[in-house]
Amino acid sequence: MGFTDLLNDAGGFGRFQIIHVVLLSIPSLLMASQNLLNNFTAGVPRHYCKIPNVTALAGASNNSVTEQNIVSLLPAFIPLEGSGLSKCTRYVHAQWHLLGENISHHGQHTNVTETCVEGWTYEKTDFLSTIVSEVSVKDYFCLILLYCYLVKIQNSISQFGRKVMLLWSYFQLAVLGTFTSLSTSYLAYCIFRFLTGMSVSGVILNAFSLKVEWIPTRHRTMVGTMSSIVFTFGQVILAAVAYSLKDWRLLHVAVCSPFFLVFLYSWWYSESARWLLLVDRPEEALRHLQRVARINGRPEMADKLTLQVLQSHMQNEMQSPRTDRTAYDLLRTPVMRRISMCLLVVWFSTSFAYYGLAMDLQKFGVNIYLMQVIFGAVDFPAKLGVLAMLSFLGRRVSQAMCLLASASVIFANIFIPKDMQIIRTTLAVLGKAFTSASFTCVYLYTGELYPTVIRQTGMGFCSTMARVGSMAAPAFLILDEVFPALPSVVYGGSSLFAGIVAFMLPETISTPLPDTIEDVEKKLHCKITQPSSD
């Protein structure tokens, strides 16, 4: 007897659960925009050193100068570097002879260069405006932006509950995300994104727990995977919105302002009755359960649900010590310590590989908007496949296989020549698919491994490790200056190690959600001792 029985008496997976999941999933369409927004708001347009009076200088070459042919004159001002123009240097004196044309020139035949002392000129082919083109920030921007997600609110969640913190996160994201578009400096932009990142964490963690804690055991896999697929739709939507706007300020307004509407309708949510019972608020839990039963068309069960019924079903949980839970509880007992350490590795490695691919779309040499669509579309078959794996193979094997498959694809890319760009891009897309499937597994798996009393603390701890991974991912790209294959070795090695570690986690398929730490300890202890008792 436990909360699962109460939930089944209230209608199981009924009308309330469907509405509840749909309303919680709608914001997920825009969560991809928040996580991957940096690709477009901080995209680096094609650029070169600003050339003062370029029209007048070009006119000195006896050419008639128009907007159309200024680009053809750039080699006289900007040295060639690789397959294009240098992004960081320009000639001190115009080198007209490099154009290879029969023109008179007054420049000097010395190829002395200087840095871009007067700034840069940005092309507007892919972006009309980004934070980079406005304030000339560089690649380290993505590191600072991702760092903002490290601030978590586990203690507040434990104190105020899922619904209150979720509503506050919606409101904070709507206000601060929209106000980001008004930033006039890089510092202001970073501050707003830092605070917005806090609210993004609050939305993701609270929405997941509030969703899964109202879902019966046999429907958790489907709900968890479908919720992840909604996130994938968001990636495709992001590409469409970014392509239609191409201005970072308008893009911020477009993806953040809808959360004002989400905030208004989210008052309909019901607080987690599991959590209310465990924090000694049974009257509120009873009221929410009765509401769920009525919405599910079970008014007779709503009348039968009483405090005595709750106490008989949740006697052990309600009698557990009412101590304040902290992050220390994640490591206090042997089983929780093992689970937390393994999940730390899995979350870090999954995010490390995922964002190493997803947040550097420009490196593939394909239109960035098309690449975003491809990266989003490939997740659909990946997540449908992982739905079958989770249902038939279980959580542990599915998690490990996704990570090991990701590692194998990353390692395979090391041996593909750089001139075979189509094959390299295809393997990168497959790697993104496997890491995305790994994310789908680990969110569901983590929610099932941690008990209700510390589920939010555990999710916050693991998510923090994931943000460390996402912050480290672009930093490791500079290792290609030491050895071109080194970043892939690091990414692949991390996924390989995490795949092996995942086999050390306990299986949770078809098991009720644990409510206390004691439930977790007893469950694993029974699995270990059962064979010897036969």
Explain how this protein is built:
The protein has three domains: 234 residues, Up-down Bundle (Growth Hormone, Chain: A); 76 residues, no CATH class; 211 residues, MFS general substrate transporter like domains (Growth Hormone, Chain: A, Up-down Bundle). The protein has 27 helices and six strands. A two-stranded antiparallel sheet has the order 1-6. α9 packs antiparallel against α25, α20 packs antiparallel against α26 and α22 crosses α24. The protein is elongated and about 95 Å long. 46% of the residues are buried.
The appropriate CATH architecture of the largest domain is Up-down Bundle
Average pLDDT: 79
Give the overall silhouette: elongated
CATH topology of the largest domain: Growth Hormone, Chain: A
* CATH superfamily caption of the largest domain: MFS general substrate transporter like domains
Question: Biggest sheet, in brief?
Answer: 2 strands, antiparallel
| Percent helix | 55-70%
Content-based structural category = mainly alpha
Distance between the termini: 25 Å
What is the radius of gyration? 27 Å
GO molecular function, one term: transmembrane transporter activity
Keywords: Membrane, Transmembrane, Transmembrane helix
Pfam families: Sugar_tr
Membrane topology: Multi-pass membrane protein
Search tags:
mainly alpha, 534 residues, 64% helix, two-stranded antiparallel sheet, Growth Hormone, Chain: A
SSE diagram, text form:
Blueprint: H1 3-9, H2 15-25, H3 28-36, H4 38-41, E1 47-49, H5 54-59, H6 67-73, E2 80-81, E3 84-85, E4 89-91, E5 113-115, E6 120-122, H7 131-135, H8 141-147, H9 154-160, H10 162-179, H11 186-212, H12 220-245, H13 248-256, H14 259-265, H15 273-278, H16 282-295, H17 299-304, H18 307-313, H19 315-318, H20 334-358, H21 368-377, H22 379-392, H23 395-414, H24 421-449, H25 455-475, H26 486-502, H27 517-533
Antiparallel strand pairs: 1-6, 2-3, 4-5
Transmembrane segments: 12-32, 164-180, 186-210, 222-244, 250-268, 339-357, 369-393, 400-416, 422-446, 458-479, 485-505
Keywords: Membrane, Transmembrane, Transmembrane helix
Organism: Electrophorus electricus
